[in-house]
Amino acid sequence: MFGDADRSHNSLILGIESSFDESAAALIDSFGKVKANEQITQWEQWVDNDGIIPDVSARNHQLNLPKATEKVLRDLDIRKGDSRLKAIAVTVGPGLENCLNVGIKFAQELGREMDVPVIPVNHIEAHVMTARFNQANAPAPEGVPMEKFPYLSVLVTGKHTEIVLTRGVGLHTILGMTIDIAAGDCLDKAQLNFQPYEKVLHNAQAQTEFIEKYNE
C-alpha cells in the first residue's frame, strides 16, 4: 500500500499491539499519517507488583484491546464493508507469548469479521519503521514518507539495544548490539529502584522531606 503510486489518504491499515503491557490500536493512512490512536496502559501492575505478570497482562488485553480498537474505528466511522480499511496489522513478536496470543487471536477474528487480510508484524522492525511516519510536527512533502531508504536506526527497547541499517521493508542489517546488558533492561531495573520514591515527583512536601532526609 505504501509503494502504490495510486495510493490514497483514504486507504487505511488498522494496527493492533499487545506485546507487553499496553493495549493499543491505531489507524494509519498510506502516507504514514496516524489518523486515530488509542492506548490503554497497565501501570497499576507496576505499582502493585513491581513489574508485569504475563497472565494478568494477557487477561487485561482481552478486556482492553476491544475497547481501544472500537475507539479508533469509531473516530473515523469505520464499519464492516468500509472500502477505506485495507488490512489489519498485528504484532506477532518479540514479546510476552500470552499477551501476543491475545492480540493475534483478536486480530484474526476481527479480520474475518471485517473481511480484510491480517498482516503479521515484527515488533522490533515496527520500531525501526516508525521513522517512516509522517510526523505532525515536521510534515513531509505531500505523498512522501518522513524518511527515505536507506537509513540508520538506534534501538533502545527492552532487551534490544541495536544499531540497524534499513534498506527497505524487511531489509535490515544489524550493525552492532550490546555484549552484556541491554540499555532498556538497565533502565527497567533502575526504574524499579526509584519506584518507591514516585510520590516525590508529584508532591512538594514529599520533595522537601526527601531532600532533608538524603541531602546530608
**Globular, elongated, flat, extended or rod-shaped: what is the shape?**
globular
In the residues, how many domains can be counted?
2
CATH superfamily assignment of the largest domain? ATPase, nucleotide binding domain
Please name the CATH topology of the largest domain.
Nucleotidyltransferase, domain 5
Number of H- or I-type helical stretches: 6
Largest sheet strand order: 3-2-1-4-5
Please mark out the parts with pLDDT under 50 across 5 or more consecutive residues, or reply none: none
CATH class wording of the largest domain? Alpha Beta
> Helical amount among residues, as a percent range?
25-40%
Q: Give the overall pLDDT as a whole number.
A: 85
How would you explain this protein's 3D organization?
Strand 4 (85-93), helix 3 and strand 5 form a beta-alpha-beta unit. This protein is 36% helix and 26% strand. The chain has six helices and eight strands, in the order βββααβαβαβββαα. With 216 residues, the chain is α/β, with parallel strands linked by helices. The strands form two sheets. Strands 3-2-1-4-5 form a five-stranded mixed β-sheet. It has two domains: 12-133, ATPase, nucleotide binding domain (Nucleotidyltransferase, domain 5); 147-216, no CATH class.
Give a quick set of tags describing it.
216 residues, alpha/beta, Nucleotidyltransferase, domain 5, five-stranded mixed β-sheet, 6 helices, 26% strand, globular
